[in-house]
Task: structure prediction
Amino acid sequence: MKIDILTLFPEMFPGVFGSSILKHAQEKELVSINVVDFRTYADNKHHKVDDYPYGGGAGMVLRPQPIFDAVADLEHNSSEKPRVVLLCPQGKTFTQKKAEELAQEKHLVFLCGHYEGYDERIREHLVTDEVSIGDYVLTGGEVGAMVLTDSIVRLLPGVLGNAESAVTDSFSTGLLEHPHYTRPADFRGLQVPKVLLSGHHLHIEEWRSKEALRRTWQRRPDLLQNRPLTKEEQLWLKEIEEEAKKDL
Result:
């Protein structure tokens, strides 16, 4: 995969992209991450990329020319037509499902805005996706681009040491992930559930599935509203609800 990030502040990225999983993924050539200062594409001697909004109002608006030319240059040097993703608080909220969808692409371009916003012609004629990482406003799209890059790259084959890790993550199955335990089995009187020490893989998987359902019901019941439950999960959910009533 190739990821290009168009930004006015390329100095923000080396720490994140030069560490941990993202660093190893690039070293193994599983992904190429290229951070581009789109100010260099401005067609004026002062490399000005923004201007006052027509009709008046507060703030400055990013001009279309530098961004259109930057994307055209990236497309020219690519064997695949890229998916152009605009980081914007008006976009659809980013989800694990969206990360899985974008992880299937060969080339992604992330647009990081600043100031009051983008010239609408960028949104209408250049962008394929508009994404927001939450219902709040940041000073720019750079942090959002880091979030998207991290969540997408970790889904690429060979990036994680254990391929099952991404499959069982929270939200990947529609549920939050089950609890985890490690050594020692007895930590200051706090015990690991016996089923995890039993060696009975079927029972362990059943426990994990039920606990994932329990955790989702406790913390994110909204996720269960549109998720079809199996007959077994329906029975578990009844048990979980009854157990909760007893604890009141």
Q: What stands out?
A: Residues 168-247 form a domain with the Trp Operon Repressor; Chain A fold (CATH 1.10.1270.20). The radius of gyration is 23 Å. The first helix runs from residue 14 to 17. The mean pLDDT is 94.
